[in-house]
Write a structure and sequence with these properties.
With about 475 residues, the chain is mainly alpha-helical. It contains 20 helices and no strands. Helix 9 packs parallel to helix 10, helix 14 runs antiparallel to helix 15 and helix 15 packs antiparallel against helix 16. The chain is elongated, with a radius of gyration of 34 Å.
Length: about 475
């Protein structure tokens, strides 16, 4: 959502600052009609003319200039920098003129804020989010929102596994301020991620918004489409699972799982846990792009964490046919079993990889030895008078060893894989047609040519142009 402070060209810094603001809007509007899925975001029309938003944007820019871009603020390129920020945000000509006046003309700011104080509120929320980001609150800080944000951050589960407290505090503050405003005034519904925060004031807020916010373990019934949106949101936010529902059958299969949960009137976090289980332990694997055991382990550990953090009871899980294990044991036990199985399979896969690498090493070694034997067989200086066909015999011995290694490799991989390894060997080192002919003549002289009929590997690796040789 935010940016680094490394030295960059001013035009790049302007884009970076604009992207930080736009990413804040994207996150705050996720799962609304403006940001239905990842990578499908459009700005609400006239958003920058909203009084609160203008206060938030302008003050966020001012704070950034004061703390990180001081050299730009005091230079004669300040106006160009601001113009680049506005253009990267997508402001039109009228909006750029408005923001320029708001930034430089105090009377216009007062008039703009006079109606209901939303401009000042936007500025204050920008300050709170900015201070959380960079931990620059003073000891005199007295905002009523800060204790609430700290309480939320304290209870917030790790989403990617290694978030710092500052990151959680920033996220919590954004949820209470800019995200909340965006959802109310543009998205039509609050995000409602903190379903288990025990705070009386928060409970009052929850009660007021109970018709539109999915915050409790047992919700009032909501339309299925809305429930599905929330489950998809949770899969993305909690598990980093981006599912593909472009295929009608995939969509129908996913709906069948959700309908069973929806009928039980459970919340969207339980829906996400069950959907994740169906992806990694059911028949919905096709919904995700790539499968690996590390993702399985991460997913089930995340599910266990969500159950703990949101105090979800195992009896809250629906008892549907493809979730029948709930009757026999808890989901935690099931998750532990899946994690243990994935770890064992990872070990097994690791051993197989090691075996493959060992076999390949041996294949390359014996192939080089085979080539040396073939070259020595036609080199008069290498021929032994006492054992003149010594190198010919060695060629057959080395070939037999290679044949056995290729069989092992094929059992671990497949025939195609072995074929490509042979191609790689020939690219590394192979014999010219003239040398092949000489080697064949040696075979023939010692009456070993008849043995070539069942020695395809010699033909593939040594006499690769066999069909063109003079037999």
């Amino acid at each position: 959502m935010f940016f680094n402070t490394r030295k960059k060209k001013e035009i790049e810094k302007a884009k970076e600052l604009a992207d930080a603001i736009l990413n804040t809007f994207k996150t705050g509007l996720f799962n609304t009609k403006y940001h239905k899925t990842v990578d499908q975001f459009t700005l609400p029309p006239n958003i920058f003319k909203d009084i609160y938003i203008s206060g938030f944007v302008e003050h966020f820019i001012s704070l950034s200039l004061n703390f990180f871009y001081k050299e730009i603020k005091t230079s004669n390129t300040n106006a160009d920098f601001l113009l680049n920020v506005y253009k990267n945000l997508g402001l039109n000509k009228d909006e750029i003129e408005l923001y320029s006046h708001l930034l430089t003309n105090e009377k216009i700011r007062k008039d703009w804020d006079a109606a209901d104080g939303r401009y000042t509120l936007g500025k204050e929320h920008a300050r709170l989010c900015f201070c959380c980001m960079f931990n620059i609150f003073t000891i005199e800080e007295n905002s009523e929102l800060l204790p609430k944000a700290k309480k939320i951050a304290k209870n917030m589960p790790n989403i990617i596994g290694n978030e710092t407290y500052e990151v959680k505090l920033t996220t919590a503050m954004c949820e209470l301020t800019i995200y909340d405003y965006l959802q109310k005034h543009f998205g039509g519904v609050l995000i409602g991620k903190y379903e288990s925060i025990n705070d009386k004031k928060q409970e009052t807020i929850k009660h007021k918004n109970s018709e539109s916010v999915d915050r409790t373990n047992h919700n009032k019934q909501i339309p299925f489409k809305e429930f599905k949106k929330r489950v998809i949101r949770n899969l993305r936010v909690f598990y980093d699972i981006k599912i593909d529902l472009s295929d009608k059958k995939n969509n129908r299969d996913f709906d069948n799982i959700l309908y069973a949960i929806y009928d039980e009137n459970l919340n969207s976090i339980v829906g996400a846990i069950i959907s994740t289980n169906q992806i990694y332990d059911g028949d919905l694997l096709k919904l995700i792009e790539k499968f690996d055991y590390e993702k399985v382990i991460h997913a089930y550990n995340k599910s266990k964490l969500l159950i703990k953090e949101f105090d979800i009871k195992i009896q809250d899980f629906p008892k549907i046919d493809n979730f029948s294990y709930v009757n026999a044991k808890s989901f935690i036990e099931h998750a532990n079993d899946r994690i243990d199985t994935a770890i064992e399979l990872m070990k097994s896969e690791g051993e197989e990889k090691y075996s493959t690498e060992q076999i390949l090493t041996e294949i390359f070694f014996y192939y080089r030895s085979l080539i040396v034997c073939a070259k020595n067989s036609i080199n008069p200086n290498k021929r032994s008078k006492s054992n003149p066909n010594f190198w010919i015999k060695k060629i057959f011995e080395k070939t037999q060893t290679l044949r056995d290694l290729f069989k092992k490799l094929e059992s671990l991989k497949n025939e195609d894989y072995v074929y490509h390894v042979k191609e790689l060997l020939l690219l590394e080192d192979s014999l010219q047609k003239v040398s092949q002919q000489k080697i064949y003549n040696e075979f023939k002289e010692w009456e070993w040519d008849e043995k070539l009929s069942d020695q395809n590997l010699i033909k593939e690796l040594i006499l690769k142009d066999f069909d063109k040789l003079k037999i």
